[in-house]
Amino acid sequence: MTAVEVPAPRVRRAAAPVRYHYLDALRAALMFMGVFVHAALGDDRVFRLIAHVSGLFRMNGFFLVSGFFSSMLVLRYGAGLMVRRRLLSIGVPLVAVLVLLNPIARWLMYNQYNPRVGLGDYLLGHRVAHPDGPMTWHLQLWFLVSLLVYTLCSTVVFSALTRLFATRGFDRVAGSRPRTMAALIAFVLLATLVLQGGYQLALRPVTESTPADYVVHATLQYLPFFIVGMALFLDGQRLLPAFSRPAPVLLVAAGCLLVVAERGLVAPLGTELGDALVRSVFALAVVANLFAIFQRIVTQERPILRYGADAAYSVYLFHYVTIYALAALLGIGVDAHWPKLLLITMLTFVITLSVHHFLIRRFHVLAVIFNGKFNIGKPSPAPAPVGRPAFAAGPAAAGPVSAAAGPVPGPRPEDGDRRIEARPEARDVTHVASPRGGRHRAPRGPDRRLAGR
Predict the structure, then answer these.
(1) How many CB atoms lie within 10 A of CB 201?
(2) Residue 420 in domain
(3) 47 is a domain residue
(4) Residue 405's pLDDT band (boundaries 50, 70, 90)?
(5) Range of the domain at 321
(6) What is the spatial distance between Cα 249 and Cα 261, in angstroms, rounded to a whole number?
(7) What confidence tier does 19 reach under pLDDT thresholds 50, 70, 90?
(8) Is 3 within the bounds of a domain?
(9) What is the pTM of this model?
(10) How confident is the model at residue 15 (pLDDT cuts 50, 70, 90)?
(11) Is residue 5 part of a domain?
């Protein structure tokens, strides 16, 4: 895929590389929450409540943060190299887990909800035609398929956002926080209306009876949040600070709308499309407040946070098969209550973190297969061919800087690979040799992001 050429607007940069420890921590927390969600084997009220609350914002927040770092990778590597790197770093773990782990996980899940069969019989198709339980082909891997689709779209979105940010109209909108938040809400609503409405009218009749239906629906559902994340990075001097401040009024108002929609008090909001619109606004409000909370509490990189961020991807890929293996070994069924489910959850964390620590971190081949840690290409020393949107990675920005600021530095050879990101959406970001260095930083070379005009 070739890079998209866009005009080069005036640039502005921060005085020092900006660190995003709090976004690493937020994304890891959202991924770890998925373990609790998938440990809800039956109808236990506590774990079902966790799953319900998670469904209101968790994946929205995950894809928003993923979009944020996708913009960073486009700037760091250029569009073509970024796409190649991410197709490998996402696609290889997807295929590996889909082939090596998911058949076992699906067999264990089948036995949890249906009459037991042996692994050989299950693989040979000796099972009931319509089994009970969440027997999807992808299990938790659908998010990787969505990330692959977003990767292919990211350069086009990057180019469109760059052009938009160069307009006077955008300057007026980004000049105040109320207008900024209103614009983000309006975009999410409009995009949800178009994508979900199009899915219901045109795509669902075609995909509903196919194995691709859930993935198609989820990919369209979370695409607006991925685009918002890309926009936040591209204008970090105005959009990111506006979004990352507490928004309790927005959260309360969106929560009230959600209650009205779920109880059917207003007929249009009770429809499938109306409910999707309300949920998108509520998710955006929750994620904005999570940005504010994590930015406040995670002010610097700490070893435990760095380790958790690195391990989150491994935990998420291995947790499904681990949960159902533990349930089978401990004799915990679908009628189990929260103490037993909490035991499974804690043991799952212990086992998956051990797999990451003792296997994936120590054997490069496993890091490649299950974490997609490829070393392909180098950061571009010259301005990336996608154009030069302004750098605005933090609230404290300096004045304009010339293009002669120097090339973007790459990771030092002596750093090794311990600090390479373990997650597909951010593992390619610049790393710094200092033990106190930040994991995700804005590029330190010629700035290519659009700040204010």
Answers:
(1) 10
(2) no
(3) yes
(4) very low
(5) 12-415
(6) 18
(7) low
(8) no
(9) 0.83
(10) very low
(11) no
